[in-house]
């Protein structure tokens, strides 16, 4: 994959899918801004990248804060001169096992703020820079929960369907500007976020595994491969699409 010297920003890159994606971009010789609300975790990812001989810099960014996202893009452009790839990965799972009639309002607002408004802010600011420079690729991390119904977690479902909708609508607007916008839709993938769901009941792990034809959870680096491919020129005629990585769960 030709990602050499591409300038990449990844949100939520202190752990899980974001950290694996940052490491894979860096392994392909991209220059990566590793952004996370938790700067200690971002620094750990940067250290792993540098130990492996790659180039990265850390940034503390809460994607729900427009000014912080603006500072993230500005810092990246100041450091590296441009922004080739924006990976909007930061996300939270919300409270599980709450039916809609009793869904907690604070949880609703928090999940929508991070998973939906955060992606909007990041796309908006990345697009301002990419339009100016005349090229770019955005990859949003949606979810299988953005394509299919999933009970007992309406805020997460709403936010991820929104990410898919924003991906398609923005792709329509920016095709002629040489900017592609796509999304990955992971199924159940090993990470802190999945662990939270598994901890919600004793039978959760068994029940989830039963739903996956391949009989196992995904691994963060498997999702990272798809994100890097969608950001690379190998997928240059693809825009506004979702790529599902779920071991067959959606079947
Ligand atoms: N793990 C799965 O099964 C799965 C499945 C489908 C989609 N996803 C999506 O993948 C993405 C990454 O999740 P993960 O599984 O790697 O989880 P994770 O919890 O390991 O990583 C999420 C990262 O986002 C950061 N973050 C949280 N709130 C933030 C904020 N306001 N601003 C900036 N960073 C913030 C966290 O600090 C953390 O480092 C999320 O968007 C998630 O919804 C995960």
Describe, in short, the structure shown.
46% of the residues lie in helices and 15% in strands. With 251 residues, the chain is of the alpha/beta class.
Protein architecture, described:
There is one protein chain. The protein has 251 residues and is of the alpha/beta class. The chain is built from eight helices and seven strands. The chain has helices spanning 16-27, 39-51, 66-80, 105-133, 154-174, 192-198, 204-210, 220-231; strands at 7-10, 31-36, 55-60, 85-88, 136-141, 179-186, 242-245. The mean pLDDT is 97. The structure holds nicotinamide-adenine-dinucleotide. Nicotinamide-adenine-dinucleotide binds next to helix 1, helix 4 and helix 6.
Helix/strand layout:
Layout: E1 7-10, H1 16-27, E2 31-36, H2 39-51, E3 55-60, H3 66-80, E4 85-88, H4 105-133, E5 136-141, H5 154-174, E6 179-186, H6 192-198, H7 204-210, H8 220-231, E7 242-245
Parallel strand pairs: 1-2, 1-4, 2-3, 4-5, 5-6, 6-7
The structure holds nicotinamide-adenine-dinucleotide.
Nicotinamide-adenine-dinucleotide (NAD) binds at residues 11-12, 14-18, 36-38, 41, 61-64, 89-92, 114, 118, 141, 143, 186, 188-189, 191-194.
Name some characteristics of this structure.
single chain, 251 residues, alpha/beta, Rossmann fold, 7-stranded parallel beta sheet, 8 helices, globular, binds nicotinamide-adenine-dinucleotide
**Mean pLDDT score, rounded?**
97
The CATH class is Alpha Beta
* CATH architectural category: 3-Layer(aba) Sandwich
**Portion in beta strands:** 15-25%
How many helix segments? 8
Shape: globular
| Rg over C-alpha atoms, rounded to the nearest angstrom | 17 Å
Structural class: alpha/beta
Q: How much helical structure, as a percent, in the residues?
A: 40-55%
Number of domains: 1
Provide the low-confidence segments as ranges: none
Question: How many strand units?
Answer: 7
